Amino acid sequence: MRVAPSILSADFGKLESEVKAICEAGCDFVHIDVMDGHFVPNLTIGPCVVESVVKAATKPLDIHLMVQNNPFFVDLFAPFQPEFISFHIEEEKHANRLAQKIRSLGIKPAIVLNPHTGLDSIEYLLEYIDMVLIMSVNPGFGGQKFIPNILDKIKALKDKIALLNPSCLVEVDGGVSDSNIESLKEAGVDIVVAGSYVFSGDYRQRIESLK
Ligand code: DX5
Ligand code: ZN
Prior knowledge:
Elements: E1 2-5, H1 15-24, E2 30-35, H2 47-56, E3 61-66, H3 70-77, E4 84-88, H4 95-104, E5 108-113, E6 131-135, H5 150-164, E7 169-173, H6 181-186, E8 191-194, H7 196-199, H8 203-210
Helix pairs in contact: 1-2
The structure holds D-xylitol-5-phosphate and zinc ion.
């Protein structure tokens, strides 16, 4: 299992040392939650903050957009050359076009599904993307409770991926901890995002407990 700590739960007063610490503690990606106050009722990280993250990070960035006007934000964050840029299908009429644009910038495109969003919406997209990010909480805030029926969705998604794009990765975001990691592993998840769980304990021990 690869682990992407969400810096939303980091101490922003010492962000660079927090990022350094999770990288040294063995994380695989640094997950950055970009919220615009419109798509979700919270406002978080812009490019100035990502500049500080990039200075400190020794692991690739995983940028999760929770915004309206996705193409604007892709242009804003693409210069940081993250490994992934994920955008929500609920907010994108031209998802195929945007996925191709992200790929043309040398970045892996990923589609995010809210907890209530079904898999039909991505059936014809799977072959154009590198990852599906399944939200296991309603996006907007760290520290929420994991929604258990997501496990059924992951199983159904894995079947579609096997048929349509076997190299597509599955990432899960929200409420991940040592109490649900075994079921996520069993379901075949490739990457977990964990915010409050990683940052509320010893970083190395918490990251290792999810691997
Ligand atoms: C929620 C964010 C998550 C969140 C994860 O909208 O996308 O990345 O910060 O935090 P925890 O692990 O605390 O649920
Ligand atoms: Zn996220």
